[in-house]
Design a protein that fits this description.
CATH architecture of the largest domain: Sandwich
Order of helices and strands: HHHHEEEEEEEEEEHHEEHH
CATH class of the largest domain: Mainly Beta
CATH superfamily of the largest domain: Cupredoxins -  blue copper proteins
Number of domains: 3
Distance between the termini: 68 Å
CATH topology of the largest domain: Immunoglobulin-like
Largest sheet: 5 strands, mixed
Length: 328
């Protein structure tokens, strides 16, 4: 066991090949967790096979050939001290070694480097939003390769859980508080993100990705996105926000009914509210519905929309309104 621990510590911590049962490892810490997982799996298999073999051997060796042979003629010992000490002490050392190995990995995973790049993550039904140092948000996580990244997570509605299988990390996003985790990617590419906490009807659609950029690529991407956002025509920006801010999970643009009203033909339409009042959908109502969604609820729809107050700039709110105007 000790030899195995030393060997695991000496091996590279960023293996780039997939295993029989795990996806390709893409982070610095994934290697030590894979070694621990493999060791526990092998240990379990060996234990099961050994115990099963012992059971079969003892059943065959001590089977009774007749009723007379099954009778106890002489007094037999009811325990064996040496045997009991053996099966208690050896597993104790193995379990303690596993605990030390796992606890070391846990401490590493819970202690981000001081110079880690920080990205704020917001979960909401049913979308992930990642906010970067320049204030820009995207529904994909972009990071530079070989750089520690600290994620600060929260949620605006229910508990979600950010899960990146290739990095072997998962952390809950909880309403009203912040949680955090960190990783350091080791190879440029794209890796899937899932929500690992059931959060409602759209849970299975709460998907995203990590885009790991080559050296210099992350900075170029940030700069290009900021230029695009500032110069993009408002309807085009609104269409992009519809995708990136998770609007598409609740509002269709083809007239079909989802969690919320469809945006097709919405602007200028008469809508009946849950209190019976009828209003005309104009720019002020759309803005109010985005920033104060619980103030007025359209009849026959549940009050499920979270607020975007403070998450969208005035230009972005205007862009969404202009985009809705184009959906005739």
């Amino acid at each position: 066991m000790i030899t195995y621990l030393l060997l695991a510590d000496a091996l590279p911590k960023s293996p780039q090949s997939s295993t029989f049962w795990l996806p390709k490892a893409g982070s610095l810490s994934a290697g030590q967790f894979d070694w621990l997982y493999d060791f526990l799996t092998i240990l379990s298999i060996v234990s099961v096979v050994g115990i099963a073999a012992a059971i079969v051997y003892l059943v065959v060796k001590y089977r009774a050939g007749s009723r007379a042979a099954n009778e106890i003629a002489d007094k037999t010992p009811d325990h064996n001290t040496t045997l009991e000490l053996t099966w208690s002490i050896i597993p104790l050392f193995i379990v303690m070694a596993i605990f030390v190995w796992g606890f070391k990995g846990y401490l590493d995973l819970r202690t981000p480097p001081k110079d880690a790049l920080e990205v704020n993550v917001t979960g909401q039904k049913w979308n992930w939003s990642f906010t970067y140092s320049n204030g820009m948000s995207d529904n994909a996580l972009h990071v530079p390769v070989n750089t520690p990244v600290r994620l600060v997570l929260t949620s605006v509605d229910v508990i979600h859980s950010l899960y990146i299988p290739a990095f072997r990390i998962k952390m809950d996003a909880v309403p009203g508080r912040y949680t955090e985790m960190w990783f350091q990617s080791t190879e440029a590419g794209e890796y899937p993100i899932f929500c690992a906490e059931y959060c409602g009807a759209g849970h299975s659609r709460m998907l995203s990705r990590v885009v790991v950029h080559e050296p210099g690529g992350y900075e170029n991407w940030l700069s290009e996105q900021q230029k695009k956002m500032s110069s993009m025509p408002l309807p085009e920006l609104g269409a992009q926000l519809y995708q990136k801010q998770g609007c598409k999970t609740c509002h269709s643009i083809d007239g079909s009914r989802l969690v919320g009203p469809s945006w097709k033909g919405l602007f200028g339409r008469k809508e009946t509210m849950s209190d019976g009042t009828v209003i005309a959908v104009d720019a002020n109502y759309i803005r109010e519905s985005i920033t104060e969604p619980q103030k007025r609820i359209v009849s026959s729809f549940a009050p499920a929309m979270p607020t975007y107050q403070g998450k969208l700039t005035d230009r972005e709110l205007t862009a969404l309104i202009e985009y809705i105007k184009t959906l005739k």
